[in-house]
Amino acid sequence: MADAAVPEPATLPAARRRPIRDHELWVSFWAHPSAVIAAAMLLAIVATSLAAPWITPQNPYDLAALDLMNSEIPPIWSEDGQWPYILGTDTQGRDLLSAILYGSRISLVIGFASVLAALAVGLSLGLLAGYFGGIVDNLLMRLGDVLLSMPFILIAILISAVAQQSLPVGMRDTLAAPILVLAIAVPSWVQYARTVRASAMVEKRKEYVQAARLIRVKSWRIMLHHILPNTLTPILVAATLNFGLAILSEATLSFLGVGMPPDQPSLGTLIRVGNQFLFSGLWWIVVLPSVMLCLIVLSVNLIGDWLRDALNPKLR
């Protein structure tokens, strides 16, 4: 018997042979100039923040590296600027470029972790509420309504303040980042849960879900393998846009004094400290961290706007 013919690469399905550069999402990305610029800017910020220990002249967390004789130096383009303090120094002699890059890393990590935590909780509870309905749906959605009835920042401040006061003094600074993640994630999961719930209520009435029930497929397999993949498009867009909101929330909490401590400065902490010297002529201490925060949030929002348009079937 002759051996079965092996299909040539040209005879394979077009969808399997199509390179990634021809994918609709990839083509849409390169056709959207603001998304390309935002992605390049965000990638540069993330790369320099991660490489901060190797590219910055100073570790702002190391008190032994600080010198008060080098305090209040203006940026390098000013008349009194000095090398290597490109963006100047603050009142403690801390290199501002180093502090901004280290602070950006903290803000990015807290923002990403809080979105991931809220996403995990929201997806789980939204699937349960939409699939089972009844008392489960009522309990979870009423809890969400209670959270939505209060201002987001008020809930975050309350959680952060209560958590810090409940800990021993020696552990407050150590656990400041996890507390911030919790404070931002708790009021954020409701949006994901309501979106997934609405999609799950539609999907569970379709024929493929009914067929899976008839052959006694377990509920958790139906939810994870059939319903969840069909709800990810709006969730992905919401998570991208909420990433920028989470970074702003962290900066707000740190600015109000219930976020990161001064010896572990995030962008919000740097802005809070620099704000005290704004009217004394040391404008760069507060303006430059604020510019970095704006660039991060702007780039994330531009990427989120492109993703929302690219994944919207009505705009194709």
- Structural class, judged by helices and strands? mainly alpha
The level 1 CATH classification is Mainly Alpha
* CATH architecture assignment: Orthogonal Bundle
CATH T-level fold name:
MetI-like fold
Distance between the termini: 50 Å
| CATH H-tier superfamily | MetI-like
Could you state the order of secondary-structure elements as H and E? HHHHHHHHHHHHHHH
Q: Biggest β-sheet, characterized?
A: none
Q: Please work out how many helical segments DSSP would assign.
A: 15
Cα-atom Rg, whole angstroms? 25 Å
Give me the count of strands: 0
Helix content: 55-70%
Would you identify the regions where 5 or more consecutive residues have pLDDT less than 50? Answer: 1-17
The count of domains is 1
Global shape: elongated
Average predicted confidence as pLDDT: 80
Strand residue percentage: under 5%
Domain ABC transmembrane type-1: 104-304
Organism: Acuticoccus sediminis
Family: Belongs to the binding-protein-dependent transport system permease family.
Pfam family, one: OppC_N
Give a structural overview.
The chain is mostly helical. The chain has one domain: MetI-like fold. The protein has 15 helices and no strands. It is a multi-pass membrane protein.
Attribute tags:
about 325 residues, mainly alpha, about 65% helix, MetI-like fold, elongated, 15 helices, about 0% strand
